[in-house]
Write a structure and sequence with these properties.
about 25% helix; 6 strands; 2 domains
């Protein structure tokens, strides 16, 4: 369900932008999705196809660029890619405190990987008169 509401948001935003720019058909929508949104690209693509039916986005290609989760340690100041605890199953690991790979502290803050942004749209535009 998470992916369906995300897909609907993409469609609503892209339709609004396309109409504002007098587009008649959208061919490609490029999005940036962070690791910590927990969106699954394949499910997002599937739901985008459903959500775009009967709109100017129907048949458009959805390109998804993933951004890694980044943590900053409050203890030692290290900032870098998040590493899940390999001892935990993936469905549990994402909810456990993520530790600094340098000092092992769990006093970390997410500084990247929560992005969910349309970066560009490729569309056919009405000719100016």
């Amino acid at each position: 369900m998470h992916e369906f509401s995300a897909a609907c948001s993409i469609v609503d935003t892209a339709v609004e932008a396309a109409r504002a720019n007098r587009a008649t058909k959208v061919a490609v929508v490029n999005v940036e999705v962070g690791e910590f949104t927990f969106l699954i690209p394949e499910q997002l693509e599937f739901n985008f196809e459903i959500a775009s039916k009967n709109t100017i986005l129907e048949g458009a290609q959805l390109n998804i660029s993933r951004t890694p989760g980044i943590l900053k340690c409050s203890e030692c100041g290290t900032e870098g890619p998040a590493e899940m605890d390999p001892a935990l199953p993936p469905q549990i690991a994402v909810f456990s405190p993520m530790k600094c790979p340098k000092c092992g502290s769990s006093s970390t803050t997410i500084t990247g990987g929560k992005e969910f942004v349309i970066t560009s749209i490729e569309a056919e535009v009405e000719a100016s008169v």
